[in-house]
Input
Amino acid sequence: MKSQIQYLHLFPKTIQIPSNESWTLLDFLNNDTEQVIILEDGAKLYFYSARTSGKLHLRIIHQGTGSNSQIQCGFHTQENGKIEAIIKSSFEANDALSEIHILSLAETGGEVLLDSSIEIQEGVKRIVGRLKERHIFLGEGGKIRGIPALIVHSDDIEASHALAIDRISDEELFYLRSRGFSRDEGTGLLLDGAISEIFAGLEKVDEKVYEECKKKVLGM
Output
């Protein structure tokens, strides 16, 4: 069972999640944030970020055996806006898991500068690390930089990473257009679906917060 949502800006720069506790943290403000989160044995972290500007520097450290982190980020830079994010997850203990999923939208002139990584130290075993980024241009002349990285110093692991930088294509819109939706309506439905996937875990915890995060990233 996931815990009640807690807001990241209310915490000090270093957070230690005790053994076997489950925390849900939300980064909702656009303030510049530098955060270290340490997970002890069996600790679980569900982290969500909904931003339209600012800097986020997040470091997750799996110090405890059996720790688990789920990092879900939805970013949307409006015209001439900018987001800078560094998101790093590292493993220092066995039997741990970390998944990072990032979706960003860039309007005309908007910038998304992202550096994300998963690092598995030597001698650590039975680790699962997954890193996925998708960046979508919504206007002209925007700038997106994604640098997903896996840094692996151990053999007994399951790790993957993926990066896509694109626009909403005619192929993606074909089904919706054939059902009578305009291009703008179809694009809106596809974006709503992608953003809903990022924040889906929040819906079971607090439906109001879930809707607020979706609206913020959609630009509503």
